[in-house]
Design goal:
Blueprint lengths: L1 H80 L9 H5 L12 H8 L9 H40 L18 H38 L1
Helix pairs in contact: 1-3, 1-5, 4-5
């Protein structure tokens, strides 16, 4: 009877060792998996922050350059309506309309998360929603504004200037201002000025959106 009891005890101990071993193995495996996910999430967040920092700088640069273009276009209108002497119409006043800066986003990390289906690697639901709104709504709005201006400049403004405006071969000015005073030119330049001004406001708003989302990511690191 004692021998039988010892056998049961030994069997129970062996079973306990096996169960403990499996439990520890699963625990270690889960720990390793969670650690891997944590590292992956951290790397994605750091990459997102880097992308947003680049976009903030790029937007700010495009906005500052656009201010100069808007100012030159405004001066051009002032010259046209005040019958300013022809020497005031510099090349830059006319050519600035088709050297317009545009915003090109650094959204590679976000696209990688979406294309690979890894967006849920970001544990914060709030952060995931903020990123979707930022890139799919706010970035898209700015992109549409850019495309609208690009289309206006490429299809209408640039061809008109190329065919109608004569530049002085030596001096930094145009030869004749009358082509700028036609209804077509006034409408084109007026549309360009208004669209550029509105887009610069959107650039400023997107900069603030990027800064806000960047802060949310930083707070989760």
């Amino acid at each position: 009877m004692k021998t039988k009891r010892k056998t049961y005890t030994a069997y129970f101990m062996e079973l306990l060792v096996v169960v403990l071993g499996i439990t520890i193995a699963f625990t270690l495996d889960n720990y390793a998996s969670n650690s891997k996910l944590d590292r992956e999430e951290k790397l994605y967040k750091e990459a997102l922050i880097s992308d947003l920092e680049k976009d903030i700088a790029s937007l700010d640069s495009a906005r500052e350059s656009s201010k100069k273009v808007i100012a030159l276009t405004g001066e051009l209108f002032n010259f046209m309506y005040t019958d300013a002497p022809i020497k005031r119409y510099t090349r830059a006043h006319v050519t600035s309309t088709y050297t317009t800066p545009y915003f090109y986003s650094n959204n590679g990390t976000y696209q990688s998360l979406i294309n690979s289906g890894d967006l849920k690697v970001l544990s914060s639901f709030e952060l995931r929603q903020e990123l979707v709104t930022l890139y799919n709504v706010h970035y898209a709005e700015v992109s549409r504004a850019d495309e609208f201006i690009k289309d206006l400049v490429t299809v209408q403004v640039y061809p008109y200037i190329l065919s109608e405006i004569a530049f002085h071969p030596i001096e930094d000015r145009i030869i004749d201002s009358s082509p700028l005073k036609t209804n077509q030119a006034v409408n084109l330049l007026g549309s360009f000025y208004n669209l550029m001004s509105a887009r610069n406001i959107e650039y400023g708003e997107l900069i603030e959106d990027c800064k806000r989302v960047k802060k949310i990511i930083e707070d989760t690191l």
